[in-house]
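User: structure tokens for Beta-glucosidase, please.
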Amino acid sequence: MSNPASPPAAGVLDQGPELTFPPGFRWGAATAAYQIEGAATEGGRTPSIWDTFSHTEGRTVGGHTGDVACDHYHRMPDDVRLMAELGLKSYRFSVSWPRVQPGGTGAANQAGLDFYRRLVDELLAHDIEPWLTLYHWDLPQPLEDAGGWPARDTAARFADYAQLVADALGDRVRYWTTLNEPWCSAFLGYGSGVHAPGRSDGGDAVRAGHHLMLGHGLAVEALRASRPDAQLGITLNLYPVTPATDAAGDVDAARRIDGLANRFFLDPVLRGSYPADLTADLRQISDFGHVQDGDLKIISSPLDVVGINYYSRHVVAAPIEEAEPAAYWRSPSCWPGSEDVRFVTRGVPVTDMDWEIDAPGLVETLERVHRDYTDLPLYITENGSAFVDAVVDGRVDDPDRLAYFDAHLRAARAAISAGVPLKGYFAWSLMDNFEWAWGYTKRFGMVHVDYDSQARIPKSSARWYAEVIRRNGLAAQ
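Assistant: Done. Predicted tokens:
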């Protein structure tokens, strides 16, 4: 494990025998529709790009699909009761666009909306705050057939869909997130092709990124007009990007990757502009002719909160000849215009995803967003780790995941002490689920899921997290 961030100085928050969080700090867990719901063809739901992608040979490990997943669609009341037993105060879930609006256009599918009405009512009945994400990567397949996110019209269709959901749930849902991790949708879906829809074109990825943000801004405008009391935000997956050495080439490599991973989204959403160095880096990929007058004003529509997903750090270096091929998010095709940058591993502990464990990087990320971009309330909307788990005598002990959570919560606590307006933490994930292209081979959950029987077993990390919530803090070290 990385060394956890040092606890804050005495007097900033109540020290006592524990490291306490501020009163009202929001404790929750997160999931995504395609990863847990199942019921892929029930209740009027039609295919998304992830249905198509996962049913295409060679796209996912073992040919796994989300057809059944965790069967949450049928087991939702029991799952909400489990959330209540764990003491969750908030639950971050996503709405399946093709369940609510088959085909991505036209009238709402009331049977699909009814599922989310029941979910919200069940959460409220258990005093759990619904935290709704409109888009967690499941674009309706007909919209992809019409051009997908590289096509400008998809942004307008997203705003229409947002309005349908707001009309149905806006009287009971206060917190709204437009997009989850648009970097993944754009650069993994249209750049490297390792995520749905599986296209590999750097120019398409850049256009997709812009139109995702345009859709975000249009959705914010629609939601603001119809639900002025709603708390609106976006969730970005952010990384500290560190040069491998102080050499000029490594420093420039870090600048380039930081531009694509972080500033590509932070600057338009929170500053209303693209960084000049980023557009220069992408000159051979895109002339940004898809950016129309007024787009950036829409994209930077005022928000109420900012969500940050944090998992790891990027350490990068200048190009060398005959570099070893890289995979997944290290793949050159994820980084158009900077394909030759090398991602360096440091020999530190990693998760089962081969992501380096770096809790201090969370402090850096939170401080940077607050210092350089916004005074808005920040929320950690995802943070978690995949490890190999085993059921032994009906129990699942996961000390590595528990230690990961502990270190990152201490980092979050340190960020608060440093003045960051961090207001909540959502563990990823509530339960084991369909981990996208990795299928069911990677487990992020605090609750173990037997995919054959669908039995749920809270892991030791879940029992530990329940105690953290109860105490609103951590044991002092």
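User: Anything notable?

Assistant: The longest helix spans residues 202-226.
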